């Protein structure tokens, strides 16, 4: 059976576009301000919103990957009015990774988020993260940086093309 050139060409172009580096530089980000989750050899930088449904799907996906270290920056979107309070709650906790999983799994949905314990340090850190995202030109969630590439949205095909399955 002959090889069909058009699908092959489309597949090759997709592979090249997915793997070519872009100008966004993770080196310009202050990762000391990020919430660090995991300790795998592959680095994923994530910009997320605690109430974004696609961010939550991504959180669930990455929770099952032991080969990744995630650096998480919160950029709560205006259309999610409780997201900023949830981000500040996460960043105020001693065990931030646990609070992140609690929030991203929806365990706090329906509760009065105004009563969540928040510290001045958590508020300041959330503001710093938002400023880092703004300087990097990131304004959509979820947005990922992987191996010099930016992926907007939870695009599992592109993520797994870079990280492997």
How is the CATH topology named? Answer: Glutaredoxin
pLDDT averaged residue by residue? 86
Computed structural class: alpha+beta
Integer tally of domains: 1
The secondary-structure element order is: HEEHEHHHEEH
Structure write-up:
The protein is 42% helix and 15% strand. The protein is α+β, with helices and mostly antiparallel strands and 165 residues long. The protein has helices at 5-19, 53-63, 83-92, 96-104, 120-135, 156-163, and strands at 35-37, 42-48, 68-74, 143-146, 149-152. The protein has a single domain, classed as Glutaredoxin, CATH 3.40.30. The chain has a 5-stranded mixed sheet.
Strands, helices and their partners?
Blueprint: H1 5-19, E1 35-37, E2 42-48, H2 53-63, E3 68-74, H3 83-92, H4 96-104, H5 120-135, E4 143-146, E5 149-152, H6 156-163
Parallel strand pairs: 2-3
Antiparallel strand pairs: 1-3, 2-4, 4-5
Helix pairs in contact: 3-4, 3-5
